[in-house]
Structure formats: structure tokens, C-alpha cells
Design brief:
The longest helix has 14 residues, at 107-120. 23% of the residues lie in helices and 45% in strands. It is α+β, with helices and mostly antiparallel strands. The radius of gyration is 17 Å and the shape is globular.
């Protein structure tokens, strides 16, 4: 990170920032160009990793690309405002970049991922277990060991 004075190293602050975001963007490898898609998510903080759960249709471009190459980039940000400086203009913001691998979730792990996602979306009492939609929903997790977070606020 070029401006290390903006780096956030406190784990709780990083997790709190991610949980304050409505969506994250996932970057997949595609043949000619990167493929970036916004997703809603659930989050689990383990001692050494952050695990992000997302859902979608069973078939689709995200899944095709994840099967070809499970390495992905996760991006989240919060823009506050532009700020005029003596020598120009800058932005007050906070951002997260993470690198990890995508894994398919099945059975109990699928339920866990959906529960975390629904909690993050504000529906902690919702359960998809036993619903027909459960069988038609794909749940994946991204395990991230490497990530950075930074901010610039006055």
C-alpha cells in the first residue's frame, strides 16, 4: 500500500467496515477481460481468514468462471464526499480489497451461508431450509487470507 498512513490494520474495524457495506464486487478471470459483478453477502470472521458467502442461480457466468479459475478479488468501498485541498481535490472514502478462492457450499454449509447472508441483509429470522428455493439457489464461499483496507477521512 503506497500510503501506509491510511491503512486499517485493526481486524474488528475491517470486519465492521465490510458489514456496513450493502454489496461487494467480485472480480473473476475471464478470457479477454476481467468479469466484475456486485453481490449481496454474508461474512464470517475466523482467526486467520475472512469468509464471504454469496448466492445466485445454479447456472451462470459467475459459476462458470469460478470453475475455470477459483481465484477471485473482492472489492468494497464507501465514498463519503469530495474534499477541496490547497493543491487540488481528493475524496474521503474507505475501501477493502481481498484475494481468495471460491468454494461451492453444500447442505449444512449452504444453510450456514444463507443464514449469514440473510442476517447481513437484516432478516435474521428468515430461513430457507425446507423451502423449494433452497434447491434452486447456489451458495458459494470465498476464503480470504490476504486483504487490505484503507480510509481517508478528516
Amino acid at each position: 500500500m503506497r500510503k501506509s498512513d491510511r491503512e486499517i490494520t485493526d481486524r474488528k474495524e475491517i470486519v465492521d467496515f465490510l458489514l456496513s457495506c450493502d454489496t461487494v464486487r467480485l472480480g473473476f478471470f475471464d478470457e479477454e477481460y476481467p468479469y466484475i459483478v456486485p453481490v449481496s453477502f454474508g461474512l464470517e470472521d475466523n482467526d486467520e481468514t475472512l469468509t464471504l458467502y454469496y448466492h445466485g442461480a445454479i447456472v451462470g457466468k459467475k459459476n462458470e468462471l469460478a470453475k475455470k479459475n477459483p481465484n477471485v478479488c473482492v472489492e468494497a468501498d464507501h465514498f463519503e464526499k469530495y474534499v477541496k485541498l490547497n493543491v487540488g481535490v481528493t475524496a474521503d472514502y474507505q475501501s477493502f480489497i481481498g484475494f481468495g478462492q471460491v468454494f461451492e457450499c453444500l447442505d449444512e454449509e449452504k444453510s450456514k451461508g444463507l443464514k449469514l447472508l440473510m442476517e447481513h441483509c437484516g432478516y435474521s429470522d428468515y430461513t430457507a431450509d425446507g423451502c423449494a428455493i433452497f434447491d434452486y439457489t447456489d451458495v458459494r464461499k470465498i476464503v480470504m487470507k490476504n486483504f487490505t483496507c484503507k480510509k481517508r477521512f478528516k
